[in-house]
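Sample 3 of the quickstart, ligand phosphoenolpyruvate:
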Amino acid sequence: MIVVMRPNAHPEQVEAVVDRIREAGLRAHVSVGELRTVIGVIGDDRTKEQLRGMLEAMEGVEKVVKVLQPYKLVSREFQPEDTVVTVGGVRFGGTEDVVVIAGPCSVESREQILAAARAVKAAGARMLRGGAFKPRTSPYSFQGLEEEGLRLLAEAREATGLPVVTEAMDQRQLELVAQYADMVQIGARNMQNYTLLRDVGRLRKPVLLKRGPSATIEETLLAAEYILSEGNGQVVLCERGIRGFDNHTRYLLDVGAIPVLKQLTHLPVIADPSHPAGKRTYVPALARAAVAAGADGLLVEVHPEPERALSDGAQQLRPEEFARLMQEVNAIARVLGRLRSAVPVP
Ligand code: PEP
Ligand code: MN
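Result:
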């Protein structure tokens, strides 16, 4: 249920509504928009129904509406304006910018991550990615450098000024990752790990939430709802491909999910063209498609020497391929009027 305040409602009137909601044992999430304040009411459905008439009669209240979707706080009904997620000065959503995060699949060595960071920065990337804890399909594959990988990411941030995002798979990793990273990635395999989602919800750090390979759009939004319901509104969603039936690509990039998500939620939506492609030759086309479909940014795997990569070598771009991709993405962003794209024009 959402309480929509009148455009000129006083802060005391908002406070009175919040107090009334809390007195009833429900939770109130206040969202101050440019035009008006709306208050999300979270909790037991029967109590909400009983409270409804009372709230409608309060000073400053315009209307009380029932949210029909199961997700509430992430919905456009609750907050019509785009959420802007800021990571070390880089802004996702709500701007014309198409923000590109790039870097290797895994952090492998100091030389590798520094070379990757410098190369992606030179090509116009705004953030650095790199896994220190890797969710690998096989327990015998390279699992990541762990805390040493996090230290190297912090060093690459020092060297380039790029904020860093990296994955945490459990609570213990989350505490470590939060010490080093600017943004925490929740990987596709963990999108429905509800205790982990609650944990990142209690963190005061931006979160990159990747869609699960078999998750519906609604399940993806409900995963984000877990994070917001714990108080962390700084969530960027990432479409990274779902399980298809053809094996020429690794996953099926759900380009259609991008405009759907943009309509249903106020959260920024980016796309990862690397994991659905599976092979580097397909990555640029998927990146272009995602930006054309309205993505607020991209997450692209780039490795200084992909043939030596310890994970996902086949899909990682070489620096020169990434630089070309950035020019193409920039051209598409321009056509769409997203002119502030930070890609340097040659
Ligand atoms: C990754 O970004 O390296 C990764 C493991 O992605 P996903 O969780 O989407 O498979
Ligand atoms: Mn990868």
